[in-house]
Amino acid sequence: MITLLAIIVFSYLIGSIPTAIIVGKITKKIDIRQYGSCNAGATNAFRVLGWKAGLFVALFDIAKGALTTAFISQIRFRYSTVKSHLVNDFGRFMYNSWTYFHHLCRF
Question: Could you say which of 7, 30, 44, 45 is the most buried, measured as most Cβ atoms within 10 Å of its Cβ?
Answer without folding.
Answer: 45
